[in-house]
Each structure stands twice: as structure tokens, then as C-alpha cells.
Specification:
The structure holds two protein chains of two kinds. By secondary structure, chain A is mainly alpha-helical. Chain A is built from 14 helices and four strands. In chain A, strands 1-2 form a two-stranded antiparallel ribbon. In chain A, strands 3-4 form a two-stranded antiparallel ribbon. In chain A, a hairpin with a 2-residue loop joins strand 3 and strand 4. In chain A, helix 3 packs across helix 14. A four-stranded mixed sheet of chain B has the order 8-9-7-10. In chain B, strands 3-12-6 form a three-stranded antiparallel sheet. Chain B has a two-stranded parallel ribbon with strand order 1-2. In chain B, strand 1, helix 4 and strand 2 form a beta-alpha-beta unit. Chains A and B meet through loops of A and helix 6, helix 19 and helix 20 of B.
């Protein structure tokens, strides 16, 4: 997309006049031609500089990562002994079919659980909270602030808070409430709640999901609340005059008008599910809670990170998942817009 | 790839740090002689320090209170006033995690690290400076061959041994006296003891596996007691198989003991497990001597240990796990002469005594360190290492770091679901073949 823009300025060129009086920079029509010459340079600069920066720090590293995923390398020297060695699809063979297959499947599954959970947990709850708070209850501002407060914390901080206050094995609040007087290993218990073959959803991952929901719910709530506030009150009035009950009003009147919010929420949730990393990393990556992002970084950074190739292979998989979603979203969203316009 | 690495030192060939005589000499409070020779050694090693000057940056992962105080005391004892030392303190676990990135563009000249395979992994990547001349200039005289071997990669030395400790079965004397328990010598005695303790409502073994390294210690003990030192070495190098019946036997023995461990160890830190042990709720703890740093100083003399019981008469108790910590110089130090002077100094008896005065949970490798100041437990640890036929480092120091991570995950999976051990080991063997 960025490359398309300079082309369009070239197309604009015939419109731009070419006077060369250097003194005049104000907007008198007579002197406009020179101003537009400068304007064109500025405009080109504004397009080219960010494009170059973007290509250098995003696309070139991305392409290099994809290339590195076909090599074996410890990341220290380019050539010679232990330099970059091209190994073809060996990294993909190992991660998808070979020794690391189990890790990969569990990680992809965890990313999937996270996505599903965020859709059906915090999203629905956030929508419900927004709906209730939209009714102008007494103290609604206080509730709003309370639910929204966790959103200002980074997920890493949320991890520390839940680790020490809620999930402490002995003294945690969750332990006191549900532990039956004993201890509960919330974050270490890697048993599956339900399993598909030798993979599944582990108890400690669910515990982490709940902690993430604590933050994510408030975020979703605010988005829907803002959307609901902007819905024309006449719509609700007319639906109640037509004899709609509360559910029908929500389902057929309010919800359709919230469509722009729904789109934002879908995008945010998918991004959140794919980029999640910090909360699990600060909890020492308990077993069976690894996401694709952890497999990537574990192979790329750290003492045991001796194979840039394998890490890049994981990163490429994550990249393909992201780009797949982005392409699907962009094509669908814009096609629909074109259709409706 | 692994063939070029040497394995854990086998000090049986050359003898470990301290002669038995020296221990006895220390115990007999004839420490004056040892202290005197310590001064001489310090002067010998100090020749370099005399000529070096400028600023030296020393990286430190000694982030806990006592070790930090000890390191500062040791650096303060440097006899060269022309050298200014700046300490760059990094959190212990973070330092280990980031070591490769850190050494590629090191802000410091001198950096702490671990002996053995884990040192060789860094040396083989040219991340460390060859400091063989520091050894010929003085360390050779004060450190035994076992320590030299642990500091060597391809015939060159990259490491100055600084402290070591041993992994043992620790217990509190007062707790054991109260319940009338005695240290078991065989596995059957150990099982019987566990049953008795369990019947009394005391948890036999402490277990905290957060970070996935602490229980590697228990695996190592069971493995070399059952299959011997050579099997440990070969298994770590990928020459023996994790799906071998002998490896499965180790986990079978462990499965018998597992019900006698603190439940659900994977989410508990080793410090939390130590707190239960210090508090007397748990009777035993298989851990390194550093557990002493978790004791209130006035209760430290209540701490004791016994070697892990015999499992196989062929191997008896001939192996002890004694990881060595120490110092390296980064590949391109800003001040090479100064850095060598500092690591040379850290190898001297003066520096190591200064450290031990603050942190008495470990022991010093230097022959001339005055052992009369050692507490009973340090003396015992020294003797255990000295009398061992073989010394290992630790699972995560005796193999490639990438593989150690995988082994740690397998052990966490095992304690969570012991019945699934066959599938876990098959998976781990696949990773061993891919990585080693």
C-alpha cells in the first residue's frame, strides 16, 4: 500500500505548476506554482521517509527471518565454523513433524484456546457490563472506573499481581476461597482439564486466562459503553413502543447499531490472542502454557537459544497466522464497505 | 558437536581442592600455617595486579544479600590501589538467561559463570578470553587439577574457580532428634523412613520446582547412584538413551518416592520449599549447600546433611554433585591487564576467605584458604567432595543449555503425571537426538 502512494503523486504532477519565483511562499493564486513545487517535495518526503523506515525496520527483518528459518545458526558469527548453514526445511520438519512437534501443537492449541476464551469470556462479559452500566445505575461512574482500572496495567504487571495476591499457593485469595483450607498450585498444575490425544487445555493455562480476562473485560466494556452511549435514544423508544422485550431490543436494535464496535473488538481480540506473551513469560512459563511467541523467543534469546533457525521457523508460523488474518480482514471489510456504499 | 566438549571433571584422577590433611589441620585449629601460605599465594598472584591500572567493570549475578556482601568484601581486598572496580549488578536468573547476548557486547570486563560443559559452551563460541597465563602465573600452585580441568576448553583455561558446594540430602538435627530418625544408608531404609515420617504427619521431602531446575538435582542423584557416573556423563552427552531401560529405572525409583515429596512442586520456588524445611514441616531436602543461606544465622548449626543413599552396590556412594562457580574475562575486555589482575585476585585465598566470611554456605577451591573458620557443615562438604571417586556438576551444567531446558520440562511433566513417563522420555529422546 505504501508503495502505491508515491505513484499517485506522480500522477498529480501535471496539475502542479512550475513557476520558479523563490521569494513568494504565501497563498496568492499567482504565486501558487512555486509553493506547490515545495509542497510536492514535502509530500514526497512525507511518503518516502516513513516508507523507507517502515521497510527497513519491519519488512526487511521479516523477510530475513523467513530466510533464516531455512538455516541452522547460533546467532554469533555469519561465516566459518558455526556460521549460518542452510538446512532447507529441516526446522519445519522438526517443529511440525519431528522432535518438537508436541511443543508446536500444544502452543498453537493454546493460542487457539486464548482466542476462543477471549471471545466468549471477556467479550460477552464486557458487553453485559456495558449494557448494565449504560442504564445509568446509581454510582455507574464508580463501577466504570473499577472495571476499567486493570486496563491501565501492563499484562506483565497483571501476572505479578495475580501470582502473589490471587494465586499464591498458601495465602492467595483464590486459595482461600476455593482451596478448602489446603494449598492449591494454581500456576504450576499442568494437568489437562480436558484433552485431545496428548494435548489439551491445562489447569494452569486456564488460571492465566482468568487473570487476562480481569484486564481484558474492562477494555471491552469501555468500547461497548462508548458505542451504546452514542446510540440514538429514539431507536430504543420506538422498539419499546413496538412491544419489544429487553432481549429483542438488544438483539435486533442495539446490537446491529454497534457493528463498528464489533469490528474493533474482533480485531483487538485476535491481535491480543496472537501477540500474548508477557504475562506467561513473567510467570516463568509454566509447563503447558507456552504460546507460539514463547517457542519463538526460547529458541532465539536466552542461554539455551542456540538455533536461530528454529526460532525463525516458529516466528514465520506466527507471522503467517497474523498475515492470514490481516488479509482476510482487509479484503472482507473493504469489500463489504464497497458493497454497502 | 558434543564430541569436542570435555565432560564433568573427574577429580578422582587428580584430587580435588583440599587435601584431607588440610581439613584435619584446619579442624585442629592449626590454621595459622594455612593462613600464612594464603598470604604468600596472594602475593604470587598479585604480581599482575601491581602493573595493571584503570577502571575494571565487574559483572555480578550475586543478587542475593549474603553473596553480594561477600563479593564486595572480596573485591575490596584487592591489593592494587590503581585499579578502580565498578560493580554491575544483574538479577541472578536474568543474567543466566541473557548470557549469550551479554557476552556479545559486554558492558563489563569480568563476568561470573559456571564451570564444566556450560563454560565450554561459551568458550567454544569465542565469547571468553583465554586466561591460561593467569593460571601459570599463580593459580596452578593453589588450585588442584580437578578444578583446572573444569576450567579448561581445548587445552586453554577460561575460568577462575571461586566457590563450590555439594548437593546432599539436608535435614535439621533437632527435628530428626525429636522424631528419632537416623540418616538412611540404602534405598530401602530411605523408603521405610519416608513411610514412618509420613505416618507421623511430616512430609519427608521438600520439593519446589519453579524455574524447572531444582528437581534436576534429585534426578541426578538417583541416576548416578543407580547407573553410575559414566552413565550420567554419557546420558548428558547424548551417548546413552533416555528411553533406555536404565533411565526408565531411575524414574521408576523416583515414582516410588514421589508420594513422599511436597505435593505439586511445579509452582513452588525452591525458596518456598526451603521455608517449609526451615520451619520443620518437611524432614529432608535434596538441594545444594546454598540452602544454608535460607537459615537464620543462629540456627545454621542445626542444619546437617547425609549423602544420597546407596541404590546399587556397584556404585555405592562414589559420586558427589559439586557445582563450581567462578569468574571469566570477556572476549575483548576494555582493560585486559586489569581484568586478568582482578580474576587472578579472585582466585587467591585472601579473596575467597573474604567471601566466605559473609556467605558460609559454600566452600573455597583455593588450597590455602584457612579452613579453621569453616563450620562443621562446610568441613563435611569439603570431605565429601574430597573423598568422592567422581564429581559431577549438575544436569544443566553437564549438557548443552538448549537440551537442559528440554530435560527440565520433561522432569516437570514427570512429577505432574508420573504414569506418562514412557511418552515423556520418548519425546525427550527425540529432542536429545535433534539437539545433541
Amino acid at each position: 500500500m505504501t508503495t502505491a502512494t508515491p505513484v499517485s503523486t506522480e500522477d498529480d504532477q501535471p496539475i502542479v505548476s512550475t513557476s520558479d519565483d523563490p521569494k513568494v511562499v504565501d497563498s496568492k493564486p499567482k504565486k501558487k506554482r512555486q509553493f506547490e513545487g515545495t509542497d510536492r517535495k514535502v509530500f514526497l518526503a512525507f511518503v518516502i521517509i516513513p516508507s523507507v523506515i517502515h521497510i527497513c525496520i519491519v519488512w526487511i527483518p521479516t523477510i530475513l527471518s523467513i530466510l533464516l528459518s531455512f538455516t541452522k545458526w547460533n546467532g554469533i558469527r555469519f561465516t566459518g565454523d558455526r556460521g549460518i548453514e542452510i538446512v532447507g526445511v529441516q526446522n519445519y520438519d522438526q517443529t511440525l513433524l519431528g522432535a518438537f512437534q508436541g511443543d508446536t501443537i500444544q502452543a498453537v492449541l493454546n493460542n487457539f484456546w486464548l482466542l476462543i476464551f477471549l471471545f466468549f469470556g471477556p467479550t460477552l462479559l464486557g458487553m453485559l457490563l456495558a449494557y448494565l452500566l449504560d442504564k445509568n445505575l446509581r454510582g455507574t461512574r464508580i463501577y466504570q472506573s473499577l472495571f476499567y482500572t486493570p486496563v491501565v496495567l501492563s499484562l506483565a504487571v497483571v501476572g505479578f499481581i495475580w501470582q502473589n495476591i490471587m494465586y499464591d499457593q498458601k495465602h492467595g485469595i483464590a486459595t482461600a476461597l476455593f482451596g478448602g483450607g489446603g494449598t492449591v498450585d494454581w500456576l504450576g498444575n499442568q494437568e489437562f482439564i480436558f484433552s485431545i490425544g496428548s494435548y489439551g487445555l491445562s489447569k494452569n493455562f486456564l488460571a492465566i486466562l482468568v487473570a487476562m480476562a480481569w484486564r481484558h473485560t474492562g477494555y471491552i466494556m469501555v468500547l461497548y459503553l462508548a458505542g451504546m452511549k452514542s446510540v440514538d435514544a429514539a431507536l430504543r423508544e420506538s422498539s419499546s413502543l413496538d412491544g419489544c422485550n429487553e432481549w429483542q431490543t438488544f438483539r435486533h436494535v442495539l446490537f446491529p447499531t454497534l457493528k463498528p464496535i464489533n469490528v474493533i473488538v474482533v480485531v483487538i481480540t485476535v491481535i491480543e490472542a496472537l501477540r500474548a506473551y508477557d504475562i506467561i513469560a513473567v510467570l516463568n512459563e509454566p509447563r503447558n502454557t507456552e504460546l507460539l511467541s514463547h517457542l519463538t523467543t526460547n529458541a532465539l534469546v536466552g542461554e539455551g537459544a542456540d538455533n536461530i533457525g528454529r526460532g525463525s521457523a516458529y516466528a514465520t508460523m506466527l507471522f503467517l497466522l497474523c498475515i492470514g488474518f490481516v488479509l482476510w480482514y482487509v479484503t472482507n471489510h473493504y469489500r463489504k464497505q464497497e458493497n454497502t456504499v | 558437536m558434543t564430541a569436542e566438549f570435555q565432560q564433568s571433571p573427574s577429580p578422582s584422577e587428580v584430587g580435588f581442592a583440599l587435601g584431607r590433611r588440610d581439613v584435619l589441620k584446619g579442624a585442629a585449629a592449626l590454621g595459622g600455617i594455612a593462613a600464612f601460605s594464603g598470604v604468600l599465594a596472594a602475593c604470587g598472584g598479585g604480581d599482575d595486579a601491581g602493573s595493571a591500572s584503570g577502571t575494571i567493570r565487574v559483572g555480578s549475578n550475586y543478587s542475593n544479600e549474603l553473596p553480594n556482601a561477600g563479593l564486595r568484601a572480596a573485591l575490596d581486598s584487592l591489593p592494587n590501589d590503581d585499579l578502580t572496580i565498578e560493580l554491575n549488578e544483574v538479577d541472578h536468573n536474568t543474567y543466566q538467561e541473557q548470557i549469550v547476548a551479554y557476552l556479545q557486547d559486554p558492558p563489563d570486563d569480568v563476568a561470573p559463570w559456571f564451570a564444566g560443559f556450560r563454560l565450554q559452551a561459551l568458550a567454544s563460541q569465542d565469547l571468553l578470553l583465554d586466561i591460561s597465563d593467569v593460571w601459570t602465573d599463580g593459580l596452578d600452585d593453589v588450585l588442584s587439577g580437578g578444578f583446572k580441568q573444569a576450567s579448561t576448553y581445548e587445552g586453554k583455561q577460561y575460568f577462575v574457580p571461586w566457590t563450590y558446594y555439594s548437593w546432599q540430602v539436608h535435614y535439621r538435627k533437632s527435628v530428626w532428634d525429636a522424631i528419632g530418625a537416623v540418616p538412611p544408608a540404602t534405598f530401602d531404609e530411605l523408603l521405610a523412613l519416608c513411610e514412618t515420617l509420613d505416618g507421623m504427619g511430616v512430609t519427608p521431602f521438600a520439593a519446589g520446582n519453579d524455574g524447572r531446575w531444582p528437581l534436576m538435582g534429585t534426578f541426578d542423584q538417583l541416576n548416578f547412584r543407580l547407573n553410575g557416573y559414566q552413565y550420567h556423563v554419557d546420558l548428558m552427552a547424548g551417548k546413552e538413551s533416555w528411553t533406555d531401560q536404565r533411565t526408565k529405572d531411575v524414574f521408576a525409583k523416583w515414582a516410588e518416592l514421589l508420594p513422599y515429596h511436597q505435593a505439586e512442586p511445579n509452582g513452588r520456588t525452591w525458596e518456598d520449599a526451603a521455608a517449609a524445611f526451615v520451619g520443620g514441616e518437611v524432614a529432608m531436602y535434596v538441594i545444594g549447600g546454598f540452602v544454608g543461606s535460607q537459615f537464620p544465622p543462629d540456627e545454621l548449626d542445626d542444619l546437617d546433611f547425609f549423602p544420597y543413599p546407596e541404590l546399587n552396590p556397584e556404585h555405592g556412594q562414589d559420586t558427589v554433585e559439586a557445582p563450581i562457580d567462578g569468574w571469566t574475562v570477556v572476549a575483548n575486555p576494555k582493560n585486559e591487564a586489569g581484568a586478568k589482575a582482578v580474576v587472578g585476585h579472585l582466585g587467591t585465598a585472601i579473596a575467597q576467605e573474604a567471601y566466605l566470611a559473609e556467605d558460609p554456605s559454600v566452600q573455597a577451591p583455593n588450597k590455602n584458604v584457612d579452613t579453621s573458620n569453616y563450620n562443621a557443615l562446610q568441613q563435611k562438604s569439603v570431605a565429601a567432595v574430597q573423598n568422592a571417586k567422581n564429581v559431577t556438576q549438575f544436569l544443566d551444567r553437564d549438557t548443552l543449555p538448549a537440551f537442559a531446558n528440554e530435560a527440565g520440562q520433561a522432569i516437570a511433566d514427570f512429577v505432574s503425571n508420573p504414569d506418562n513417563i514412557d511418552a515423556i522420555l520418548e519425546d525427550l529422546q527425540g529432542k536429545a537426538e535433534a539437539l545433541l
